[in-house]
Design a protein that fits this description.
By secondary structure, the chain is of the alpha/beta class. 36% of the residues lie in helices and 16% in strands. The chain has 2 domains: 5-171 and 337-349, Rossmann fold (3-Layer(aba) Sandwich); 188-323, Glycogen Phosphorylase B (Rossmann fold). Strand 3 (81-84), helix 4 and strand 4 (104-109) form a beta-alpha-beta unit. The longest helix is centred in the middle third of the chain and has 17 residues, at 123-139. 37% of the residues are buried.
Amino acid sequence: MGNIRLGSWIYSLATADRLSGIERTALEVHTCFANLLNSGDFFAGILPDGLKIPAHYPIVTEIEHDKLLQSNYAKLSDIDVLWLNSLNPHGFSQIMDERKRGLKVVSLVHDLFPLKYPEYFQAEFLASFKVWFLMTLRISDVLVFTSDLQLDAFKRLNCKFEGRVEVVGLGASVAGPIFPSRTRNSHALIAVSTIEPRKGYHEILDAFDVLIALGYPVTLDIVGKYGWNLLGLKERILNHRELGSTLFWHSGCSDQELTEIYRRTSISIMASYDEGWGLALEEGLRHGHKVIARDIPIFRKRENTNVFFFNREKPLVELIINNLEVPFRPLVSRRTMHDFSAEVLEVMRGL
């Protein structure tokens, strides 16, 4: 098997103003690729011709330290395989031109929620997403889905796509577990995600209010920026009587700050109605948390002794009460992002 000349499309990463699950995945994959590639392989960041990273970027420290952003950038003409970590509105025409000389494109599809749940999204974003997605179908040789559930959703769209599809599951961070603080509060809850309709934050707040009313000494840290279509929830948080006392909203924090919040809390709550993968579930386990998650298929696929599922028969507030004093059990060997990256590289080498 010959050497590979690989490039990663980094403009969206380099200009990101926050560290979401997509950016976290991109950073970890870059590190894993770099460690997995052979000495004769080539790996570099790719920018569209004529586009430069604005001088004030990157804002996010963790992104600024990414290996590919610290190295010299390459051009599309320098590589044989292009990795697209997410849908990207820039440079489609350049990629199409390079495909004529044999460039292969492998695109990661995190989810198709704007097409599956259009009611959850703003009309402008939905229109843009449709264009980006159709262009991705045109330029890609391989679409990598993070679960068979996402692949099934794609097949139901009956899209015209002449390339290959692969299912390669994501995994836990290769960095390994982070030991909790000795002063961790067993009644401290955390929810990490953008505040948007799919994430189920109303139910999380409802459960928190019930726990407070019942006299439980719980706290709740919400970590995530306000997204869209939930102004009522935003006002509910900002006007909550417990805000600043037992309820805290961190609308923007660094990885280090998030780690500190994880270290002093004990239970991660994931109330999403659907997820492409659910990175916060893995992050919660990595930080020694018990995770209380909505009983949805993508979470059921990653059952763990420290993950508990709520549904109509087992309400969220009941699961929280039942698990406040339950000890965290040692993690068994799990799939990691190293496994994901190695499998994607195998796909690329086979093109």
